[in-house]
Write a structure and sequence with these properties.
The chain is α+β, with helices and mostly antiparallel strands and 786 residues long. Helices cover 26% and strands 25% of the residues. The longest helix is centred in the C-terminal third of the chain and has 29 residues, at 556-584. This is Molybdopterin-dependent oxidoreductase.
């Protein structure tokens, strides 16, 4: 946030961010340069990430950099078809090639032949039928990566082509694609009176495309056999304990003989390291007795890992003459691809949030997740919530146009607040400052028009060298209001364990929470610094020898893992203070730790923390488990979510109404954050989420024809670049603490991803007068209506 932005923001948050910045030097090491300043530490300040320098200088060891003496290289043979019956697999030519050490197929899997993080419905290797383009069929280990790839290509597979089911609407009447059938889940939500109607009714049909998480680093791993017959997997896993249990079942081993070591995590906006990459590694290492490495190509990543669910949504909104919502009817159809993965959970979020952060007295929603022969779908940041947000916000724009009411005003008349009910019957008990967020972005000054600048300096839609003419450019302003749930849902046991050790003046945090870029490792350091007053805090590497902490999703590590670290640190604090308190004849509550010193309530006693811990070894282990939730019942009712987070965005776009090209000029963001734990880190998370949302809105769509992925690479799949990134104005961060969350903080990065596409589409509607019912927005949809 620039100095000008900081001056115009309206919360104490911005002041905190500015003050924290003063304590950090330009090189990010916290020395501030010039005169000596106190160390940057504790909750609420911008503590720099420990790996920032290594990642920016290119010295950070990613998973693709792993190495072991005598390693072999793996390659995986994948199906070139979306749907086919396998008549035969002949591996003899591959096995006879010089340098090839092993070739494995489904017949070589000693344990469970299917896997899945949620539902075990996915074969380790296809053996009777292939159900999507790129499904693994066999794997090879060889002494050189080129040899491994050539050997994989030499495996002869005889296929009988089958008709591919690629339209999810056709899945209902198609022959079963899987032994479990084509329907993964159906949720009928019933809330209120089905006979109620409104004075004004608007309908819409919306389509959301297939967004790829496009991880920055290559998906890679190394498997090393152990002397006891087990195996160690070195990967950039986001959920190591689940991956360990899944791998052990497929390897036919007890879980304690499989160890997953998390290494080289480059960042993630979805589930990283598809098990279809990890499992062949371990199997090949066990077969050969040698370390085996696999680094997936970008094409393999596009074909193998999970994508955002393509979704078809039909809506009918009823409102009274004043614009207040009366009833929402919706049908939501999610394309899961060939296997279930996270589709049941994604559908639950979509159905529960189908009406958005608005008060709706009557709601009737039908949701389905179905199998097809399309690429696999699964957990991607904001799953379920993003798809419905684009649709219900499109409906709000239609209602505003039908009633002749300003779009922001219509939304203001319907916003949700604490104490209101969701259509699932759950009461919103957490802070829900939706009206405040929307008001903040609505009232923020609009960017100036470029009318006074020379035409050759205009930033036209289509880039600096765009073919458009300034006279064809129209500016539009639109709004999006979104919501997401935090932690798991529907009865998921959200628990995390952490240990804090203090030895020789240095604290170590041991917790299996994987930092995928959300900043947990930095937060854990801040928590221990805040509670114990110790400057030197490190996080131990993550592996499955540690107690489980669960997956890195839905902001859960800030909540449950951060909460576990805080509890463990407070237990160590009590161990440290008890002897002093006993000598002083007072309780530990009358001693405080601040600025590296321990002082009594009356100021009579004071000692540095460094002196107090000298020669001591202290440690404690603690767990954090939030209050339980429950599954949605047969009518879509239930207290399914632990907490909610909200965001409002105003988008300003320029559209060339002749060419249909769009440039996002500015996105003004107001977000409900609970409490700011690290200002700079929070700002970066919001800006990254907004940018991902811009990609979903305008460019990102993994296209397939008859189930075959077209251009599975970063030239055919268009990620937003720095030239596409708009000005992001964080105009309001509402710090209204959630009392049931540790520190009162809320998830930060998912809700701007959810909200941005809806806001951009709203602005394009305002500029063109077109309905814009497809995400990403096609140029034909951005051409002005005649």
């Amino acid at each position: 946030m620039s100095g000008q932005d900081a001056a115009t923001a309206t919360t104490t948050t911005t002041t905190t961010m500015t003050m924290a910045t003063l304590n950090v030097g330009a090189d990010g090491d916290g020395d501030g340069g010039g005169e000596q300043q106190r160390p940057v530490r504790g909750i609420g300040v911008s503590v720099p990430s420990a790996d920032t320098r290594a990642k920016t200088e290119g010295t950070f060891p990613y998973a693709a950099d792993l190495w072991a003496e005598g390693l072999l290289w793996a390659a995986v043979l994948r199906s070139p078809h979306a749907h086919a019956r396998i008549r035969s697999i002949d591996t003899s030519a591959a096995a006879e090639m010089p340098g090839v050490r092993a070739v494995i197929t489904h017949a070589d899997v000693p344990g469970a032949t299917t896997h899945g993080r949620r539902i075990a419905d996915r074969p380790v290797f296809a053996h009777d039928v292939v159900r999507h383009h790129g499904e693994p069929i066999a794997a090879v280990a060889a002494d050189h990566p080129d040899t491994a790839r050539l050997a994989a290509a030499a495996i002869a597979v005889e296929y009988e082509l089958l008709d591919a089911v690629t339209d999810p609407e056709q899945s209902f009447g198609a022959a079963p694609l899987h032994p479990d059938g084509n329907l993964i889940r159906h949720i009928p939500l019933r809330y209120g009176d089905p006979e109620v109607t409104g004075e004004v009714v608007v309908e819409g049909l919306y389509r959301i495309g297939r967004q790829d998480p496009a991880p920055i680093g290559a998906e890679a791993g190394l498997a090393v056999p152990r002397p006891d017959g087990g195996v160690e997997l070195y990967t950039a896993s986001t959920d190591p304990h689940t991956d360990r249990d899944l791998a052990a079942a497929c390897f036919g081993l007890d879980p304690d003989r499989v160890r997953v070591v998390v290494t080289g995590v480059p960042g993630a906006t979805a589930d990283r390291e598809d098990p279809a990459f990890q499992l062949p590694l371990g199997l090949l290492a066990l077969r050969t007795g040698c370390p085996v490495k696999l680094a997936a190509t970008r094409e393999e990543s596009f074909l193998g890992h999970a994508h955002r669910h393509p979704t078809l949504l039909r809506y009918r909104h009823h409102a009274d003459a004043e614009g207040r919502l009366v009833k929402v009817e919706a049908q939501i159809l999610m394309d899961a691809g060939a296997y279930a993965d996270a589709s049941a959970e994604s559908l639950a979020a979509a159905v529960a949030f189908a009406c958005g952060p608005y008060v709706v007295p009557h709601a009737f929603v039908e949701g389905w997740a179905v199998r097809t022969n399309n690429p696999p779908s699964g957990h991607v940041r904001g799953e379920g919530a993003m798809q419905v947000c684009a649709a219900y916000e499109g409906q709000m724009d239609k209602l505003a146009a039908a009633l002749g009411i300003d779009g922001a005003e219509l939304r203001m008349r319907n916003v949700l607040a604490t104490g209101d009910l969701l259509p699932t019957g759950q009461t919103v008990t957490c802070p829900a400052p939706v009206a405040e967020l929307l008001r903040s972005v609505r009232d923020f000054p609009l960017p100036s028009l470029p009318k006074d600048a020379p035409e050759e300096e205009w930033l036209l839609p289509g880039g600096p060298e765009g073919a458009g003419e300034p006279g064809a450019v129209r500016r539009g302003v639109g709004y999006g209001v979104g919501m997401v749930h935090m932690l798991g849902a529907e009865g998921a046991d959200e628990v995390s364990t952490a240990t804090v050790k203090v030895v020789g003046g240095t604290a170590t945090v041991i917790c299996a929470a994987v930092d995928t870029g959300q900043g947990f490792a930095t937060l854990a350091r801040q928590i221990v610094q805040e509670v114990l007053g110790i400057d030197e805090v490190a996080c131990a590497p993550v592996d499955t020898d540690q107690p489980p902490a669960g997956p890195s999703a839905h902001g859960r590590h800030t909540w449950v893992s951060g909460g576990a670290v805080e509890r463990a640190a407070k237990m160590v604090r009590t161990q440290l203070l008890q002897p002093m308190a006993h000598k002083l004849g007072m309780s530990t509550e009358l001693l405080q730790i601040q600025d590296g010193r321990i002082t009594s309530y009356d100021g009579a006693f004071s000692m540095s923390v460094a002196e107090a811990i000298e020669g001591k070894e202290l440690w404690a282990t603690a767990q954090c488990r939030p209050h339980p939730t429950e599954p949605l019942d047969e009518h879509g009712q239930g207290d399914a979510f632990v907490g909610l987070a909200f965001c409002a965005i105003r988008a300003v776009v320029d559209v060339d109404i002749e060419l249909g090209t769009v440039r996002v000029v500015e996105l003004a963001v107001a977000q409900d954050v609970g409490r700011i734990l690290n200002p700079r880190q929070l700002e970066a998370r919001i800006e990254a989420g907004v940018t991902q949302g811009v990609g979903a809105a305008l460019t990102e769509n993994l296209r397939s024809v008859a189930g075959l992925v077209r251009h599975p690479d970063l030239t055919g799949y268009a990620l937003p670049t720095s030239l596409d990134a708009p000005a992001v104005r964080i105009v309001r961060l509402v710090e209204e603490r959630d009392v049931v969350a540790p520190f009162g903080a809320k998830a930060a990065s998912a809700v701007p991803v959810v909200t941005t596409p809806a806001a951009v589409a709203s602005a394009v509607r305002a500029a063109t007068g077109r309905p814009v019912n497809r995400i990403p927005i096609r140029p034909s949809a951005a051409v002005a209506a005649p």
